[in-house]
Hints:
Elements lengths: L6 H12 L3 H5 L3 H19 L7 H17 L3
Helix pairs in contact: 1-4, 3-4
Keywords: Membrane, Transmembrane, Transmembrane helix
Amino acid sequence: xxxxxxxxxxxxxxxxxxxxxxxxxxxxxxxxxxxxxxxxxxxxxxxxxxxxxxxxxxxxxxxxxxxxxxxxxxx
Length: 75
């Protein structure tokens, strides 16, 4: 990948917008991708099933963090 603001980072940020962690996976950062995906999936799932309804802000924060991290990555 090229530097911050490159087309690759924009594509990675768009990927992370739809699926948290996908942008990191596109950039080759497997552990970051796994962490973002697992945390967001758990938070969103618990929110939808109304088990722990107060966790949705945590999922949103990690989702936004995933998008910003993909956009600002410097390889």
